[in-house]
Amino acid sequence: MLTFLAFATQNTALRALTCSVPRFYFGALVQNRDSSKAAEAQRQIKRLDRTVAAVLTATRRDSDITQETLATRMGWSRDVIANIESGRRKTSVSELVVMSKAMGTDAETIFRRIIGW
Predict the structure, then answer these.
(1) Is 93 strand, coil or helix?
(2) Is residue 39 within 8 Å of residue 29, measured between CB atoms?
(3) pTM for the complete prediction?
(4) What residue numbers bound the domain in which 83 lies?
């Protein structure tokens, strides 16, 4: 198993969350030697993308914030938020951190929810 770090800021301290990921998850995508492993890696990525979208939607709703309000706080259009929540648009770690602050929570909470979903 490989371990990767997702960084989140909280109270100006840098904290790291660790999550174990099967070794082939990254290797199969890069080397594409085994098509069954590459296909499994693609399925895991799609599952993770759906999880991120679901967690962001749930967190926004738990915070009693509309897509319009979140979009205004982020300086984005409501369509961008809708596309992220529907999975049509992926979001970066940096955007997750900023979105978490705009929703009144911390990025660590978002990452923990994604890992535990």
Answers:
(1) helix
(2) no
(3) 0.70
(4) 2-116
- Which tokens in the block code for residue 32? 């594409």
88 token code pair:
């049509």
| Cα–Cα distance for residue pair 89/87, rounded to 1 Å | 5
Q: Which residues of the chain have pLDDT under 70?
A: 1-33
Please count the other Cβ atoms lying within 10 Å of the Cβ belonging to residue 43: 10
Provide the CATH number for the domain around residue 19: 1.10.260.40
Q: How many domains does the chain have?
A: 1
**100 vs 2, 18, 30, 55, 68, CA distance in Å?**
27, 19, 31, 11, 15
Residues 21 and 31: their CA atoms lie apart, in Å, by 17
CA distance 25 to 41: 5
